[in-house]
Amino acid sequence: MPADKKLWGGRFSEATDPTVERFSASVHFDKALARHDIRGSVAHARMLGRTGLVSEADVDTLVAGLQKIETELASGKFPFDPALEDIHMNIETRLRTHVGEVAGRLHTGRSRNDQIATDLTLYLREANAAAQGGLLDLRRVLVERAAEHVDTVLPGYTHLQRAQPVRLAHHWLAHVEALGRDASRFHDARERLAASPLGAGALAGSTLPLDREDTASALGFDSPTRNSMDSVSSRDAGMEFLAAVAICMVHLSRLAEELVLWSTTEFGFVELADAYSTGSSLMPQKKNPDVPEIVRGKTGRAVGNLVSLLTTMKGLPLTYNRDMQEDKEPIFDSASTLADSLEVMAGSLATLRVDAARMRAAAEDPMLLATDLAETLVREGVPFREAHEAVGKIVGHCTRDGVDLRSISLDEMKGFHPAFPASSAELLDLDGSLEQRSLLGGTARATVQAAIDQAGAALEKEAKALEGTLASLQEPAR
Questions:
Q1: Rounded to two decimals, what is the model's pTM?
Q2: Cα(362)–Cα(181) distance, rounded to whole angstroms?
Q3: Euclidean distance between CA atoms 268 and 312, whole angstroms
Q4: Catalytic one among 13, 75, 159, 281?
Q5: 3-108 and 113-362+452-473: same fold?
Q6: What pLDDT sits at residue 25?
């Protein structure tokens, strides 16, 4: 496109090289900001009218034209032009088609720098809220499944070795805790998205009497940003969003890994529903856990997106630099990746079949109660390290000589330590072991049930608050 046809082309006498146009174009991805760009432009136009910088008649024309473009975008009829570089120039050029020369008044007192920063801030407010919504849905599924399996017992693992018995409900509530911290990160980010960059200009504000408080209020912000240079050069909110997504995806990956392991023949603890599994093109018997595997794989992508933006920003001087165009693709990609991952994980967990008998059989391995034997001695007044050593010798005896830990008589037990009060069979009780762990955060039935009830109540409270947040984000610019 000839330079004089560009919205910034007055300074230039030569056309942009086609390779440069292709290399620098961003409309193929930043069109995700279109709705937010329209909203910010409407607020800006109305502020220009209220300050007298643009006539009310022209404001009405601009707003009507922007609303027409919004309809075109929603219907898929908007004619995107890569030669116009980005979504902002595409919209302004289209506005000129609809309303003529009055379109040139819209950019009064505004730079693409503060325009981009405002659009991205609006996008991130919604993206954070959407992430909270997805996390809310997934945690609801986990709490519901936990309520079904309060009495389902399985081994807990450390180092991927059987460690101690736990309730399946307790295990799934552990993921609820981690995902809850993820939700709080997305929620807390709203505090740092509460100021509007609009009106910061290219970097130094404007000589025109703009009303930044007016546009901030119209767009649902608490206030304008306080420093024009920081306003257009900061991408903290984007980095914070990507960090929150990366951490959340790591948590999803760990949960996905368990589904992969538990669905193997070797574990056989769960079976994924057909709707969340795939088969083999060669082996007819196969049922593959592709959904959790893909979630596990996409986690690297989310981590990479965070590193990408951190690396882009680390060497940039104030203020805006074109390198910062590279902020959007990682953000958009991570937002969609997280949304999809949360949805398919919720579906996988809601529909999987639990083999409670297989879990119980694994949990009945008496070695899982070895710590209980040591704590029996502690209750008899024996120092823990001494008790640990004595039980370690019992375990060694059983593993070397093929002896069942549950078959050791009282006399034999006293041979390992005189403080043992009973035979191993009397001391080892799976259900009793679980019930003794009644401390807050433990695996006793009543403790776990209380945790389920508390988690459910907390999620409903969170849902109501999120509903209000989502409603406020959908309010049109005033």
A1: 0.94
A2: 31
A3: 45
A4: 159
A5: no
A6: 84
pLDDT digits (tens, 9 = 90+) for 374-389: 999 999 999 999 999 9
What are the angstrom distances between the C-alpha of 368 and each of 87, 200, 295, 372, 404?
60, 63, 31, 9, 13
Predicted confidence at residue 7, as pLDDT, reads 63
Residue type, 171: H
Tell me the average pLDDT across 77-94.
93
- Average pLDDT, whole number, for the chain? 95
Parallel, antiparallel, or unpaired: how do β-strands 223-224 and 161-167 relate? unpaired
Instruction: Evaluate whether 170 touches 443 at the Cβ level (below 8 Å).
Output: yes
Torsion sign, CA atoms 475, 337, 27, 239: positive
Peptide bond preceding 319: is omega within 30 degrees of 0, i.e. cis? yes
Q: Which one of 1.10.540.10, 1.10.275.10, 2.60.40.10, 3.30.420.40 gives the CATH number of domain 3-108?
A: 1.10.275.10
**Is pLDDT of 319 > 80?**
yes
Q: Annotated catalytic residue: which of 28, 55, 223, 280?
A: 280
pLDDT at position 475, please? 81
3-class DSSP string for the chain: CCHHHCCCHHHCCCCCCHHHHHHHCCHHHHHHHHHHHHHHHHHHHHHHHHCCCCCHHHHHHHHHHHHHHHHHHHHCCCCCCHHHCCHHHHHHHHHHHHHHHHHHHCCCCCCHHHHHHHHHHHHHHHHHHHHHHHHHHHHHHHHHHHHHCCCCEEEEEECCEEEEEEEHHHHHHHHHHHHHHHHHHHHHHHHHHCEECCCCCCCCCCCCCCCHHHHHHHCCCCEECCCHHHHHHCCHHHHHHHHHHHHHHHHHHHHHHHHHHHCCCCCCCEECCHHHCECCCCCCCCCECHHHHHHHHHHHHHHHHHHHHHHHHCCCCCCCCHHHHHHHHHHHHHHHHHHHHHHHHHHHHHHCEECHHHHHHHHCCHHHHHHHHHHHHHHCCCCHHHHHHHHHHHHHHHHHHCCCHHHCCHHHHHHHCCCCCCCHHHHCCHHHHHHHCCCCCCCCHHHHHHHHHHHHHHHHHHHHHHHHHHHHHCCCCC
Q: What is the pLDDT of residues 405-446, one digit of tens each?
A: 999 999 999 999 999 999 999 999 999 999 999 999 999 999
Active site residue 107: no
Delimit the domains of the chain by residue range: 3-108, 113-362+452-473, 365-436
> How would CATH label the architecture of 113-362+452-473?
Up-down Bundle (1.20)
Measured from the Cβ of residue 292, the count of other Cβ atoms closer than 10 Å reads: 27
Give catalytic status of residue 28 as yes or no: no
Look up the CATH number of domain 365-436. Answer: 1.10.40.30
